[in-house]
Every structure is written in structure tokens, then in C-alpha cells.
């Protein structure tokens, strides 16, 4: 008798700020059962929750709160349920964002401030390489020379979370450079995130999404 492994259920959280259709197609391409919704129960009960984000930090936070997204993310993570943020969906996971001199509180899952990217050309738009840790699970099977697609004018420039308990796995932080070094991706327990768009990054991005789905 032949048995098949059930598809992992992934919800792309639709709070009004993100390329939800691109994310849906990319996840379906790598074998996930995908639904775009802001429904609380569906977002809570999915195997994985993907939080996209496009636009201003403050606007994304407002939209997320109106959809009760901050509660969903916090409750999922409290129960060890996987969440992945993309682009501004990664930025809002940090403590605060500063845009045009205005400071907005983020979700504070990680300490740190999202600030203007200091580079000759902004926004940072296009393909770039990254520096991933050797034992990264997110980048497993991805060539070191692989390029990923970025579109952003703000970034996190310092990583401030340290793990002192030897029984806990330290966060895996991936870096990229455009005028200055910035955080390009984070793997921290059930919470993963990328500043770049894996759903727009071809085969390399598809491998990343496959790696995430395999942890669900």
C-alpha cells in the first residue's frame, strides 16, 4: 500500500501590505498547500505562517494590528509554531523602525532598530549575494554565489540578541552589503525571516522556501 505525505498547510497573512500572490505561487511551486487569508483561526492553525511586507514600516504595523497580526505572531511563537517574515515583514519583527525621523514600535521579537540604508544608491534594488553561516538551515543546499532579489531603503545594521544558555541554539544571522553591511536573514527557533524576496529569487529562493517548509 502506498502512502503519501500530506502537504504542509501554509497561510500567507493578508493584512494589506505584501506581494501575497507572488508568495502564494512560490510556496505552491515547492509543494505547500497555500491559502491567502487574514482569518485568525486559519492563521493560528496552519503549519506555517508567512508574513510579507511592502511599503513603510509604520503603515505595515498599522495594518498588522488592524488584522490582529501581532497577537497571531506572538501566540504562534509562544507555542513554537513556525513564522517567516519577508522584507518589511522581517523589519517589523524588530523593536522599532525609524523613517523620516519618525520612530514606530515594532513587534520586538528581536532587539534592534530598522534605519535608513546608507549607500550611494538607494533603494537597494536588484540582485545581491549574502554571507550565510556555515550551519544555516535556511540556506542549506544553496550555492555560496547564489544571488537574491532585494528591494529596500531601510535595514537593520546591528544584531543585538545573544544566547548565553549553551542548551539553546544561537540565532543564525545572514548578512549582505550595499554601501554598508546589514542583516539579510535570521533563523531563530520557530521565527525565520529574510530582508530579500525569496519568492522573486528564482531557484535559490525556491530552495530557501523548501528548507523552511521541511521544518514545519
Automatic annotation (TrEMBL):
Its EC number is 4.3.2.10, 3.5.1.2. This is Imidazole glycerol phosphate synthase subunit HisH. PANTHER family: IMIDAZOLE GLYCEROL PHOSPHATE SYNTHASE SUBUNIT HISH (PTHR42701:SF1). The keyword Methyltransferase does not apply. The lineage of its organism: Bacteria, Bacillati, Actinomycetota, Actinomycetes, Kitasatosporales. Pfam families: GATase. Heterodimer of HisH and HisF. IGPS catalyzes the conversion of PRFAR and glutamine to IGP, AICAR and glutamate. The HisH subunit catalyzes the hydrolysis of glutamine to glutamate and ammonia as part of the synthesis of IGP and AICAR. The resulting ammonia molecule is channeled to the active site of HisF. It comes from Streptomyces xantholiticus. Residues 11-211 form the Glutamine amidotransferase domain. Pathway: Amino-acid biosynthesis; L-histidine biosynthesis; L-histidine from 5-phospho-alpha-D-ribose 1-diphosphate: step 5/9. Keywords: Amino-acid biosynthesis, Cytoplasm, Glutamine amidotransferase, Histidine biosynthesis, Hydrolase, Lyase. It catalyses: L-glutamine + H2O = L-glutamate + NH4(+); 5-[(5-phospho-1-deoxy-D-ribulos-1-ylimino)methylamino]-1-(5-phospho-beta-D-ribosyl)imidazole-4-carboxamide + L-glutamine = D-erythro-1-(imidazol-4-yl)glycerol 3-phosphate + 5-amino-1-(5-phospho-beta-D-ribosyl)imidazole-4-carboxamide + L-glutamate + H(+). It is found in: Cytoplasm. GO terms for molecular function: lyase activity. InterPro entries: Class_I_gatase-like (IPR029062), GATASE (IPR017926), Imidazole-glycPsynth_HisH (IPR010139). The active site is at 87 (nucleophile), 197, 199. NCBIfam families: IMP_synth_hisH.
Amino acid at each position: 500500500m502506498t502512502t503519501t505525505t500530506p502537504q504542509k498547510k501554509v497561510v500567507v497573512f493578508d493584512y494589506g501590505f505584501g506581494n501575497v500572490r507572488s508568495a502564494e505561487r512560490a510556496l505552491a511551486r515547492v509543494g505547500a498547500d497555500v491559502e491567502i487569508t487574514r482569518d485568525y483561526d486559519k492563521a493560528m492553525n496552519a503549519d506555517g505562517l508567512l508574513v510579507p511586507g511592502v511599503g513603510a514600516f509604520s503603515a505595515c504595523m498599522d495594518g498588522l494590528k488592524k488584522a490582529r497580526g501581532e497577537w497571531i505572531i506572538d501566540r504562534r511563537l509562544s507555542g513554537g509554531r513556525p513564522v517567516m517574515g519577508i522584507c518589511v515583514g522581517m523589519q517589523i519583527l524588530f523593536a522599532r523602525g525609524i523613517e523620516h525621523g519618525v520612530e514606530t514600535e515594532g513587534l520586538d521579537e528581536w532587539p534592534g532598530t530598522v534605519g535608513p540604508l546608507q549607500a550611494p544608491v538607494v533603494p537597494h534594488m536588484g540582485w545581491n549575494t549574502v554571507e550565510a553561516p556555515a550551519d544555516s538551515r535556511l540556506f542549506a543546499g544553496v550555492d555560496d554565489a547564489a544571488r537574491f532579489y532585494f528591494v529596500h531603503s531601510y535595514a537593520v545594521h546591528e544584531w543585538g540578541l545573544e544566547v548565553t544558555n549553551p542548551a539553546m541554539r544561537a540565532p543564525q544571522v545572514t548578512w549582505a552589503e550595499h554601501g554598508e553591511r546589514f542583516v539579510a536573514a535570521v533563523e531563530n527557533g520557530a521565527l525565520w525571516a529574510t530582508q530579500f524576496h525569496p519568492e522573486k529569487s528564482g531557484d535559490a529562493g525556491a530552495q530557501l522556501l523548501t528548507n523552511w517548509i521541511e521544518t514545519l
